[in-house]
Amino acid sequence: MAVTQFEAADARRCFPCWDEPAFKAKFKITLEVPAELVALSNMPVVKETVCGPLKTVYYEESPLMSTYLVAIVVGLFDYIESSTLEGTKVRVYTQVGKTSQGKFALDVGVKSLDLFKDYFATPYPLPKLDMIAIPDFAAGAMENYGLVTYRESALLYDEQLSSASNKQQVAITVAHELAHQWFGNLVTMEWWTHLWLNEGFASWVSYLAVESIFPEWNNWTQFLDETTSGLRLDALAESHPIEVDVNHASEIDAIFDSISYDKGASVIRMLQSYLGAERFQKALASYIKKYAYSNAKTEDLWAVLEEETGEPVKDLMTTWTKQQGYPVIYAKLNGQDLELEQAQFLSDGSSGPGMWIVPMTACCGSYDLNKKFLLKGKTDTMHIKDFAASQSGQNFWIKLNIDQNGFYRVKYDDELAAGLENAIKAKKLSLMDMIGIVEDSYALSVACKQTLTSLLRLLNAYRHESDYTVLSHVTSVCLSVNKISTDANPDLSSDIKQLLIKLLLLAAKRVGWDPKDGESHLDVMLRSLLLIALVKLGHDETIKEGIRRFHIFLEDRKTPLLPPDNRKAAYLAVMRTVSTSNRTGYDVLLKIYKETSEAQEKSRILGSLSSCPDKDIVVQALNLMLTDEVRNQDAFYVLGGISLEGREAAWAWLKDNWDHVVKTWPSSSLISDFVNSTVSPFTSEEKAAEVSEFFATRVKPSFERALKQSLERVRISARWIDSIKSEPSLAQTVQQLLLQEF
């Protein structure tokens, strides 16, 4: 099979061109290929002529488009097809024999095109849309005009083999790529500095589409996963602004990161919330019409939004796109006044110089009592006398940043924090606000702005929670706390582990191992989430049950006792018990890996093999990446699974194999995965110095930012550990919470 991938600056390697987004042209493509193969490009075929073993395929001329969106795919494919309401033909191409796995993506694709046509008030610009699954594809997916390419795991969904989270990922990815047909392809960023216009918007609007198609998935609440990853990266001194000056083609790849995508999408959600959904949509439609078939920069979008709404969009948004970072708002109750102060939030505990115009929202005791205003200076005071008159005592609480619409964190004084903790226990808060409180508290704890002791007390308030969206954030925080306490306080770490297990056990017992008739999509995902977390926390009962079911699965691959959603937990459980002297589990999983042709199953196994506590087995899993058994695109699954016990071995492995790794994975995103996965888990200044020394003569621009960010994470962890060691009441609090009746 032959496939092109031109973004960002590789069209020039295929044909001579002005290979920059603003040089739009019409393309008329002709291909000469072996007669038995399917040949696809952006536009429909006009005619084919066959001459002996070769055929010549002529395509319609394209509308004006950028070079990076031109695409060609040649190979042996089957397809299935459908049409939009307007009659646009939509096809999903797969390897021969896999078309049934394309049905779900085809359905989401057709619905997304219909939805975006209405949302942007502009028809889909081309006569056809093809989506194609490529087995070896370094990007997740690529929005080439009219011919969207995907890795198999991002497009194919198999009822028998895929999990609920795979299904969701396919829907989001398809909606993201199809949103680009308007935002990116029809209207294109003027230069790579404005990449976020493409990616941030496509990310944001993909959630809008999936929320409309699958309302039961509670997708906007899950959007906070994106916001969280943006907030975490942007709290590093080594982050970068949304708009980055790009001076050379080699610098472009490095900005395809969580800032362009996740922070970009989150500040758009913040702006939409501030302006109101209807005004925002009308203004976007005007922007698309005005710049169709041409290029725009960030300021052009602000100008249209300002013109349509009369709001100071440019002043407001420039503070969010041109400077890096974001604020933490300190909230303090002083009699009838709520005193607010903003400062740039950094995970290393320092305060940066940034200042923002912050769209503030607040509610008091009820979501019916709320306020909206812009915090323009460093401080402000909100009078809450009338606002809070009806609230008192136990029922009194104030929540800022309602539903986490704003891209900032909040640090409450003790009185306000206690009120919110009561509101969580009394189930008074929205799911999004419950997520926001636990995420802010965790981040403030990492930055040593509050204690781990107080974070554990807060986590304890979530012990009766049963919602997937909230628990996905709670478990992520629990796993991070488990890792840091292992290094910070080895004597207490097993008690902390027991406490974290106790927190998750109620919900885990409710969903159990076995699927229930008629249960929701989110409960299916919750089961997988909790079982994986309990295995990682070392919960004996869950590990034993995972191994028991795995053995049944070995006898019968279709057993209902281990559906796709629960397999990752069982695979991790098996790997917890593998060692050099007892390696059966590893060998059996490797055998399943080799036998399956299903990409999602392969990725589940790769992410489990390196999770073994035995260092030698971790090294074996890493060595597997150097063989033909693992596609280069899939290395990050192995890297993402490395156990805490295996981090020293992984670092030694990376040093030994560095030259080979750089040659084999030259792209900046892949090489950055190696650096980030092996360096970030460390937690001491000594280790940071050792890593710096190793890379002093080896660093390249393609992964320099990733290296600096990883080293910064190591130093942040080291600082957090020092702070945890000096917490006077940590051990006592852990014992108290362990003794509490649930």
UniProtKB/TrEMBL annotation:
Chief place where the protein resides: membrane
EC numbers: 3.4.11.-
Keywords, in A-Z order: Aminopeptidase, Endoplasmic reticulum, Hydrolase, Metal-binding, Metalloprotease, Microsome, Protease, Zinc
MF terms (GO), sorted A to Z: metalloaminopeptidase activity; peptide binding; zinc ion binding
Domain of life of the source: Eukaryota
UniProt-listed GO biological process terms: peptide catabolic process; proteolysis
Annotated ranges, domain Peptidase M1 membrane alanine aminopeptidase: 104-320
Pfam families: ERAP1_C, Peptidase_M1, Peptidase_M1_N
Keyword Metal-binding listed: yes
Active site: E177
Cofactor note: Binds 1 zinc ion per subunit.
UniProt membrane topology term: Peripheral membrane protein
UniProt binding sites for Zn(2+): H176, H180, E199
InterPro entries on file: Aminopeptidase_N-like_N, Aminopeptidase_N-like_N_sf, ERAP1-like_C_dom, M1_APN-typ, Peptidase_M1, Peptidase_M1_aminopeptidases, Peptidase_M1_dom, Peptidase_M4/M1_CTD_sf
Compartments, record wording: Microsome membrane
PANTHER family to which the protein is assigned, alphabetical: AMINOPEPTIDASE M1-B, PROTEASE M1 ZINC METALLOPROTEASE
Family membership noted in the UniProt record: Belongs to the peptidase M1 family.
Protein's name according to its UniProt entry: Aminopeptidase
Taxonomic source organism: Aegilops tauschii subsp. strangulata (Goatgrass)
Lineage: Eukaryota, Viridiplantae, Streptophyta, Embryophyta, Tracheophyta
